[in-house]
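Onboarding guide, step 5: your first structure request.
Type a short instruction followed by the sequence, for example:

Predict the 3D structure of this protein.
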Amino acid sequence: MKFATKAIHAGEEPNLKEGGCGDVVFPIHLSATFARKEIDKPTGGYEYARTSNPTRRALEKRLAALENAKYGLAFASGLAAETTLALALLKKGDHVVAFEDLYGGTRRLFDKTLANFGLEFSYVDASDVGKVSNAINSNTRLIWLETPSNPLLRLCDIAAISKVAKQHGALTVVDNTFASPYLQNPFNLGADIVLHSTTKYIGGHSDVVGGAIMLSNDELYAKLKFNQNALGAVPSPFDCFLVLRGTKTLALRMERHSQNALKIAEYLSVHPQVEKVIYPGLETHPQNKLAQKQMSAFGGIVTFVLKGGKSKTADFLKKLNVIALAESLGGVESLINQPAVMTHASLASEERERLGVTENLLRLSVGIEDYDDLQADLEQAL
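The system replies with structure tokens like these:
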């Protein structure tokens, strides 16, 4: 099946066998436990809802299909997926090479929580393959990438880094949240594990929090599946239903997100009140050619820097009407965020300044509204 067809049908085929009721939309299974006739044979493989649930299994099949993977695992949040991955595959003394430009919550998880258990983290400019290679040690187990990154929209060459990682016996993990599986498929480029915050584009409606891991390696899947159950950070059946429903329009939404975002990036790039625009689809982006190579379009996130300081940025944000000032991204509605005081506030101020996450840098998640209304809202606020 092509992508848009998989996004509607994978994992949700109607049961037309005798005893089935032919549900076109997979039902929400709320049972916390499952009865069995024989003590050693769970009915249908289900025994307890933390371990597995029919609605969650349907979602996991679809998640795998979207990323061209063998397995999918659903979690209660993106950070729940990241935590389970780290605890399943790493042990005390192991080392992770990570992109220096990561979601603030991921950096917080690594530095403030997982480092307390003897894990080591090195942050490098992963847009430079050589710097990734130089940071790998004998105890390096994972190369952790975000591409495009949050919030600076820097790109990693997934194919080149995956090749380097394999040469050193390390696994490549790609957080594909910003691109979505519709615009980028890390497995096709050599990655071993793909992560998503399904709260964002996969869910797409800002009404559910979730996370996902997709992979194809049987041994790694067994470890992750064991820890999904052991740690218990799983989504509810209703959450799974909402994400399943969201995936059905992912192809259409990503096309509109990308179309609107490119127009807004072009508009802002010539506006006298804007100092800088960062968007992979612009020729001014230093990695525009890489974006064209490994992405089918450039996504719905536009990052830009306003002229003026903190007070002028605050004035601009207060004047927006259609675009909401809020955390998160990837929903049908447009949201704007000031990373320095919101999503990346947990980073030390010196680190934020070094990376370029200044107080006049804004991350705009462009929704699927009419473009003219979005431009008009930005114009009046600017």
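Each response can be followed by summary notes, for example: The chain has two domains: 3-247, 250-381.
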